[in-house]
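FORM 7B: Structural annotation worksheet

SECTION A. Query
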Amino acid sequence: MVRVLFDKIVIVRKKRSSLYRTLFERTEIVFMPRSSSGFRFGFYPWIVIVFFAAWIALTGYSLLVVSKNIDYGVTKADNKILKAKFALIAEELTRNRRYINLAMETDKQMRQMLGMQEGKYINLPTGLEEGKEARPVSFKELLSRKAQDIDEKETVEYLKENTLQAQQRLASFQEIAWFYANQKNVTDATPSIRPVKEGRISSGFGYRIRPFTSFHYGVDLAGPPATPIMVTADGVVRQTGWVSGYGQAVLVDHGFGYSTLYGHLSNIRVKAGDSVKRGQFIADMGTTGLSTGVHLHYEVWKDGTPVNPITYF
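SECTION B. Predicted structure
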């Protein structure tokens, strides 16, 4: 037995050579204060080792549980944020789909107003409308399902369908814009007024005998000398000057297959290359060329063929 004075701890243990005996022999600790009698207590080293091992294991397990709980909390918070973001995305896609459907209705109405034929983009591709009716699932409904119930293929198809619909609406509106622009140009290029404000028709379109049977390619409009002559549609002056049989004449190309000829003029006010607008004065009525009196000879040609000008008054 070993004793240590002056408030020191004294460990009393018999020497053993065997590790087994060391672990399982009782060990005594004696406290020897100066002012009082000492006291001792004994313990078995293996119990202390087991206690500390259990404490370490319990501490490690507790730390593991706490870390898992922290990770779960963070994951749960992240999931809530993702869910909120997906809800916003779903709402936005649903709203966009409503806009696309509204654009489809507007597209049809515009085509009806303009008198357009059903164009390339007026109808959905074959099977797409039927597929939409057979699967009336919104993106919001898709995302509200549980993760294991979400069909990735179905989601991708929904997004592709939205994109395709938007592209078709854009193409259709471009087609409508092109049609409107060209219709406006066609309207502007189509003769639609009388070349003189007042004047009687002295000779009509078609066959006549004077003194021999011949075909009259236009109409004659009689009036006072120097009566202003108006161009009947927008176009470009192609030729001015003397033309055999017509005297002083003006030829106007209106585009889209239309052209007009004004003969027996005096005082031509335009020249070749000039752009003219419907109703613009281009010359005065005269009696030049093969003419028996003051009048205007007026012709309308469509795609290289003379047509009755009266139908364009």
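SECTION C. Observations
Residues 87-189 form one domain. The CA atoms of residues 131 and 161 lie 10 Å apart.

SECTION D. Sign-off
Analyst initials: ____
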